[in-house]
């Protein structure tokens, strides 16, 4: 028998109708696209929360879920085979937990600076890597752990402008809570990728998250058409980000995906400077270089060698 290609350690068993695994290089490209899409979504959300025609955090969350569900329904209409729900319990768990993540993060942004909230929220890949040891028996390599630490250090430089001065209050607690639920969601997605495809998982993410967000969307809504167009663009960016990330979890371990997800706040920082004119500091530029170096190191040396023998 020929050796099988390198696979994720202790991956959940695949069902007969499960999506076929894809090449690891393609999954890494998908996470790169997800990082850029998540960054664009965050920049648009920041733009829409300012000025006289501003949306509230709850309203932006509802728009994100409604646009995502609508695009999913169109995709299912064009290609009915895309809708293949299998594990409904995990699908609804992913939806509700994802809704909690979005609400907690936007509530944190309303109370503390975006850099501080982003830095705390970005703990979720590290937490997810720890959870994967228990959930799937994944054993990250020393190189992968080191790469994750280096990439996270780059994020700290970018979002903290070279310093790490965090207070302790409700805003910080909300951001950490969002990180914990995001890590849990990552593990749930990783488990579902053995049986369910990315579009189906994302659709239930929208369905389960919408009831969680609705109570936070009460009040007057903006009427500016330009703002609504940007809000629709934010929803489309979120759709692309979530589907690409979910698709990549079918081929990569939680640990390797965690390294690549450290590119998300770096992309957000660069896009904010490009689209919103926010200041780029020397520490921020150094952090971006450190973060990219960490991802490159983890990509080259972080995976386990191919299995030998039958």
From TrEMBL:
InterPro entries per the UniProt record, alphabetical: EamA_dom, EmrE-like
Region described as Disordered: spans on this chain: 1-20
Topology within the bilayer: Multi-pass membrane protein
Stored Pfam families: EamA
Transmembrane segments: 25-45, 57-78, 90-112, 118-137, 144-164, 170-189, 201-221, 227-245, 257-276, 282-302
Compartments where found: Membrane
Gene Ontology cellular-component annotations: membrane
Biased segments, Low complexity type: 1-19
Record keywords: Membrane, Transmembrane, Transmembrane helix
Residue span(s) of domain EamA: 31-159, 170-296
Protein name: EamA domain-containing protein
Organism whose genome encodes this protein: Anaeromyxobacter dehalogenans (strain ATCC BAA-258 / DSM 21875 / 2CP-1)
Lineage: Bacteria, Pseudomonadati, Myxococcota, Myxococcia, Myxococcales
């Amino acid at each position: 028998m020929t050796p099988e290609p390198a696979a994720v350690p202790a991956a959940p068993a695949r069902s007969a109708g499960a999506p076929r695994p894809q090449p690891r290089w393609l999954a890494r490209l998908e996470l790169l696209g997800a990082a850029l899409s998540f960054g664009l979504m965050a920049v648009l959300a920041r733009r829409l929360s300012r000025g006289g025609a501003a949306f509230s955090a709850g309203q932006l969350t509802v728009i994100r879920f409604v646009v995502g569900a609508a695009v999913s329904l169109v995709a299912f209409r064009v290609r009915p085979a895309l809708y293949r729900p299998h594990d409904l319990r995990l699908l609804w768990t992913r939806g509700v937990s994802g809704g909690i993540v979005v609400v907690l993060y936007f509530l944190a942004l309303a109370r503390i600076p975006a850099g501080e909230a982003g830095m705390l929220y970005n703990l979720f890949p590290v937490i997810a890597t720890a959870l994967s040891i228990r959930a799937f028996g994944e054993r990250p390599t020393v190189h992968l752990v080191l790469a994750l630490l280096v990439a996270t250090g780059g994020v700290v430089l970018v979002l903290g402008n070279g310093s790490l001065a965090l207070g302790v209050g409700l805003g910080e607690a909300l951001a950490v809570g969002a990180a914990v639920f995001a890590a849990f969601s990552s593990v749930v997605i990783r488990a579902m990728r053995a049986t369910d495809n990315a579009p189906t998982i994302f659709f239930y993410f929208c369905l389960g998250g919408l009831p969680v967000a609705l109570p936070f969307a009460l009040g007057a809504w903006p009427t500016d058409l330009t703002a609504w167009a940007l809000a629709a663009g934010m929803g489309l960016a979120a759709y692309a980000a979530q589907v690409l990330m979910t698709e990549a979890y079918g081929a990569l371990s939680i640990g390797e995906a965690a390294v690549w997800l450290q590119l998300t706040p770096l992309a957000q920082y660069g896009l904010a400077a490009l689209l919103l004119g926010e200041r780029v500091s020397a520490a921020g530029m150094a952090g971006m270089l450190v973060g990219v170096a960490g991802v490159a190191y983890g990509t080259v040396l972080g995976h386990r060698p191919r299995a030998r023998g039958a």
